[in-house]
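Entry — protein

Goal — fold tokens:
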Amino acid sequence: MFNRTSLQAAAALASISLLSGCSVFSDGESATEQRIVVGTTSSPSTLDPAAAWDNSWELFRNVFQTLVSFPTGRTTPESDAADCKFKEGSSSRVFECQVHEGLTFSNGHKLDAEAVKYSIERIRTINHKGGPNGMLGSLDKVEVVAPDTVVFRLNKPDATFPFVLATPAMSIVDPAEYPADRLRTDGKLVGSGPYVLDEYKEKEKAELTRNPSYKGFADRKNGGVTIRYFAESEAMVTALKEKEIDATYRGLTAAEVVDLQADKPENQGLQLVESTGADIRYLVFNTKDDSVAKLPVRKAIAQLVNREELVNKVYQGTAEPLYSMVPKGIAGHTTSFYDRFGEPDPAKAKSILRAAGITEPVELDFWYTTDRYGSSTAPEFAELKRQLEGSGLFEITLHGKPWKEFQAGYQKGEYPVFGRGWFPDFPDPDNFIAPFVGEENVLGTPYVSPEITGELLPRSRRESDRAAVTDEFKKAQEIMVRDVRLLPLWQGKLYIAASEDIAGGERALDPQTVMQLWELSRRTSW
């Protein structure tokens, strides 16, 4: 999965008003007719869904439709462009969708089963590097069995397939507008979603207006949205305070969130909406490197890391300690690392090492990316170094590299210990376990666990009732604690900063933490 800055439905939502007050607008427009201006540091890398497994999803969710989607507050896929289900008796291997009648793209062309097949097969044909084809590993073939019916035949049971189809990566495109074997490169976009893209200036702005032919679940509460793309969050926050934009999404630093919460004059008329996120940060141990090949070394680190201090000192309360790879808010979440190791304890860590015959401080190199996860990454690793060296059991050397160099290094297995982030494709525990295990995983360092890959995951994927597979994922997390190949550190919180006359911020994040712009509106009186 790509590492986009930001991903999961809010389990708890709270709006923190920085200043209370009231206002009445008298411009003659209703709330549903007024435009909203949203700022973000998350600009699209492409306008073609066949190439996007990244921040581009933000735009796609609002201008394209998918067969199924996540309506506000839902964590399981529900009908969008079609009614879908696994065929009875298919053991989660045959997924059938009946496309809704009368759907059209914004240019008037018909959206039918053939368009759906075309869109999915196009992803596979183009197979763009870094694109979403990797999400379709369980798909065998797509069949149109009637003008309004499309069938997906899978090569193995996969109850997570509907979740894949609900991602913006699987946006339905018009066959007349998008080449079958190459990406669209004219800078335009045609979909069937809530909005039409009227104008797009790369890294500057996107102008969205209501799609008059839209038929879907989204209840649009505004007349359109202007998205402004900022290179730096400082400029975005300034624009908010100067009322050049109505709301921000993605890119606020911990310091900016804390500053916005403060009671000071420049924050008058602003509000902050807080949501539990599902983006996580973790350490990866490359056991092919002698320095961390011994399990006691990894266990000692797990025994020493103080997550509470880490999030308080570095992230100032804008993140939460994480004790399993499956974060809070996702079914199957546990606190398995805490259950095993308890509170940080240098004496216990020393005992672990001494029992393994390790009597001298262990020298380790920790690697992190300098430009992928924000400015707090370097202080985060400095804090980890302080904690580990404070025990007298480790000597840590830190190395930071820009993302492209960093990525090339870990994929070649050059780093013994390195930090990564994960933003889920969909809100299911499978997406926090499966990507990290096996010979070919997203880590670049093979993690062989036959019990997880050969038993637990296949068994869970046969069960379409995802609430019935928590035992399998709890067991998988116990195995991960036993192996200590990955060490979860924290999960993020999500924030929308907005003018106090903007409503709907608490409903604007879907389970993938993709902004549902149609939920935002301007209060006409309050």
